[in-house]
Amino acid sequence: MSRKQTAPGDTGGERAGGQSRAMTTGQIAVLVLALLALVFVFENTQTTEIRLLVPVVSMPLWAALLAMWLVGALCGAYFVRRRRERARP
Questions:
Q1: Do residues 21 and 14 make contact, with C-beta atoms less than 8 angstroms apart?
Q2: How far is CA 47 from the centre of its chain?
Q3: C-alpha–C-alpha distance, residues 46 and 25, integer Å
Q4: Cα(4)–Cα(71) distance, rounded to whole angstroms?
Q5: How far apart are CA 20 and CA 18, in angstroms?
Q6: pLDDT of the residue at 80
């Protein structure tokens, strides 16, 4: 039997252990979520008015929701970090 010759560094579509480069379940889930996020953004492009105490700001709905998501993510990261610091001996 003859072996298939490949260029140096080329694994012929296989990883070092002889595994193929199939996507993992996690990668597929992230890809699906990214596609859903894009659909959400393109479906919510209308301008909305947001009132924060006194000023009224007009912006696309997706941008307002993204801003609130970022605020929530930062708050969550702060509390997780604080909990980890308190758990250290």
A1: yes
A2: 25
A3: 34
A4: 54
A5: 7
A6: 87
Q: Write out the DSSP string of 35-56.
A: HHHHHHHHH--SEEEEE-SS-E
Q: What is the DSSP secondary structure assignment for residue 20, as one 8-state letter?
A: B
Q: Tokens 């702060």 label which residue?
A: 78
Which DSSP symbol is given to 3?
P
Q: What is the DSSP string of 73-88?
A: HHHHHHHHHHHHHHH-
Please give the backbone phi and psi of residue 85, each rounded to the nearest 5 degrees, phi first: -65, -35
pLDDT digits (tens, 9 = 90+) for 27-73: 999 999 989 988 888 888 899 998 888 889 999 998 988 899 899 99
Rg over alpha carbons for the chain, rounded to the nearest Å, is 23
Q: Which residue has the tokens 């969550």?
A: 76
Count the helix, strand and coil residues of the chain and give each as a percent rounded to the nearest 5: 50, 15, 35
Secondary structure of residue 62 in the 3-state scheme:
helix
At residue 71, what is the residue type?
V
